[in-house]
């Protein structure tokens, strides 16, 4: 049995939500269409979901639906960029960035008084990797340059950041969310980040 997926029946039993709630959230774009996976089973066709993603998403919906409307939740979960801007001081005050990540950003992408949501996303991803100890300050410049040069090409579509090292040399790759990648044995994948999840987290800090 594939432990990476969960059947619709098991999902409803585990979370306590109804069939109607599940499909209403789908219609409202709270749950992506691509997470509804149709597979043939011995009883016929059944619907499955990526286990970790759907359980995390339903937990967030249940915890936040009393404070936010379904439309507001859909906007938060959407990979599209918000038009909201924040100053550097506001980014610091909301714990989106630290002084260290802000200084690295200023060195490589320029000192800004106001950050667009997209620029704040770059700084936030940098902060996540620095804070986790995955990334050195020196490597931060390469990360920011890859994001600034290539992320806009995805035009809001889901993508993943892959951070890897080989023989001490770091490399950053942006790939479509559905792309499979294979590396030779000398490559160490340090971190894989779903940027749609990062956008969702960042939007939560904007509220």
Folded structure, characterized:
This protein has 207 residues and is of the alpha+beta class. It has 9 helices and 8 strands. The chain has a 3-stranded antiparallel beta sheet. A 3-stranded antiparallel beta sheet has the order 7-6-8. Strands 4-5 form a two-stranded antiparallel ribbon. The termini are far apart.
Shape: globular
Structural class label: alpha+beta
Q: What is the succession of H and E elements?
A: EHHEEHHEHHEHHEEEH
Read across the widest sheet, the strand sequence of neighbours is: 1-3-2
Strand % is: 15-25%
Oligomerization state of this entry? single chain
Give the distance, in angstroms, between the N- and C-terminal Cα atoms. 40 Å
Number of helices: 9
Number of beta strands: 8
Low-pLDDT runs of 5+ residues are none
Largest sheet: 3 strands, antiparallel
Give Rg in angstroms. 19 Å
Percentage of residues assigned to helices:
40-55%
Mean pLDDT: 89
